[in-house]
Design brief:
This protein is an alpha+beta fold. 43% of the residues lie in helices and 14% in strands. It contains 15 helices and eleven strands. Strand 3 (51-60) and strand 4 (68-75) form a beta hairpin. The radius of gyration is 22 Å and the shape is globular. The relative contact order is 0.12.
């Protein structure tokens, strides 16, 4: 298969030692014979079966990770449990400025999908057909069963950072909370077996390079100057009070303290063993599917396991709530934290204090917010050079730009939670 040294069409996956494509075009050209090789290697089909045709090929863009694909296949032999409707995703293309940020988080997702083959895995997950990753180029290929959104009782897919379109977001977040806590509690109960700890070892003294705050004090100060300018130039994009210069200056001062005390603060989270477990870190509404639960309400199956790891439960909670509505969080955050603690214990995890989990959530907002969201103003301005002219968050130009609307909402939640949780005071009390 043809390749160039700088931007190869195919690279070698570290698990399977098979070639994996780096573009959808290369994937399409490889055809049914290639899919047969992948699916046999992964155990998705037996060596006496084969993919004989690809009958639909529909690339699409959604989320921030990279190109995605809906496709249908036909097998030589139809078997129970085989899906013809499949889904695939690849990382952002070589040269994309966000590739370095997003591409590596798929590697732990592929490790997680291997665990889902355990019959005791406690939450619904699409069936894995193939997954592999090349660390040298941060290239990956993940193929799973395709969830049929909008069919057979499954709700249509919900877009990230558009919770304002929902009549009542609470049942969705309750379903996500139960699923996330059930995963973590089952892990702590040992129900996932020793392979879970082998696949996701935990070192309380380690700080993953991708999770660490990537700024020097001078760089962080410059980011804060951009935030202040953004708030002054586009206050209509900020909920009431969040563009207040006094609030933003306090936030900037607190953020600088977080940077200076990062290792200390991470150690607080990492050395609370009852609160550390295997977690889904990206539990936003667009990374799940929802359907009616037998006992009423909604149940959630989980997608997009990027950055899965053992971590403090507060970090998973922030990953779930970071894209919600500010008003919703003010009303329901504490109840969801309590529900998480209850479901975690019910799934076999240790009994934990709700107040302590609340504080760990707040500390996670501080650390992850400074590490991941401080650059949001620059991203919004780059995505929407006309940001000063936008009428507000519902301006079609903003709503229709995924990165723009998502980064704006993540920033507003960070500022709102920083204020509501009094994170500055929490930092000073530690």
């Amino acid at each position: 298969m043809n390749a160039t040294l700088a931007r190869p069409e195919f690279v070698t996956g570290s698990r399977s030692c098979l070639e994996i494509p780096t573009t959808l075009d290369a994937f399409e050209k490889a055809g049914p014979t290639y899919l047969t090789e992948l699916f046999r290697a992964s155990g998705a089909i037996g060596h006496d079966n084969a993919v004989v045709a690809i009958e639909q090929w529909e690339p699409f863009e959604a989320g921030g990770m990279g190109p995605k694909l809906r496709f249908d296949v036909r097998y030589a032999q139809e078997e129970p449990g085989l899906h013809r409707a499949l889904f695939a995703k690849l990382p952002r293309p070589f040269g994309d400025p966000l590739r370095e940020l997003f591409a590596p988080v798929v590697e732990p997702e592929i490790r997680l999908y291997q665990l889902t083959r355990n019959a005791a895995f406690p939450v619904a997950v699409p069936k894995l057909y193939f997954g592999d990753y090349d660390p040298q180029t941060a290239s990956s290929l993940l193929i799973t069963e395709r969830i049929r959104f909008g069919e057979s009782g499954i709700e249509p897919c919900h877009d990230k950072c558009l919770d304002n379109r929902l009549a009542d977001p609470l049942p969705y977040y309750e379903a996500l909370t139960r699923a996330g806590a059930r995963l973590s509690g089952s892990h702590r109960a040992g129900l996932l077996g020793p392979s879970a700890d082998e696949a996701f070892p935990f070192d309380p003294d380690a700080v993953d390079v991708g999770a660490a705050i990537p700024y020097t004090p001078e760089q962080l100060a410059a980011k804060m100057d951009v935030l202040l300018a953004f708030a002054a130039e586009a206050p209509q994009l900020f909920p009431e009070g969040l563009a207040d210069p006094e609030l933003l200056h306090r936030f900037a001062s607190d953020a600088m303290e977080v940077l200076g005390r990062e290792r200390e603060l991470r150690r607080v989270l990492n050395t609370a063993p009852d609160y550390v477990a295997l977690c889904h870190w990206n539990l936003n509404l667009d990374n799940a599917w929802f359907e009616p639960a037998p006992a009423g309400g909604l149940s959630a199956g989980l997608l997009d396991w990027g950055a899965t790891a053992q971590m403090n439960l507060g970090q998973s909670l922030y990953g779930m709530l970071c894209a919600a509505e500010c008003e919703f969080l003010a009303k329901h955050r504490d109840g969801l934290i309590q529900l998480w603690a209850e479901e975690y214990r019910a799934a076999g995890g240790p009994a934990i204090a709700v107040k302590q989990l609340h504080d760990y959530y707040a500390l996670s907002v501080a650390l992850l917010g400074v590490a991941w969201i401080i650059d949001a103003p620059s991203i919004v301005m780059a995505q929407l050079p006309e940001y000063r002219e936008l009428s507000g968050r519902e301006d079609p130009r903003l709503e229709g730009n995924f990165l723009g609307r998502a980064q704006r909402q993540l920033l507003m939640v960070l500022l709102s939670e920083w204020r509501e949780l009094e994170i500055g005071r929490l930092l000073h009390a530690l």
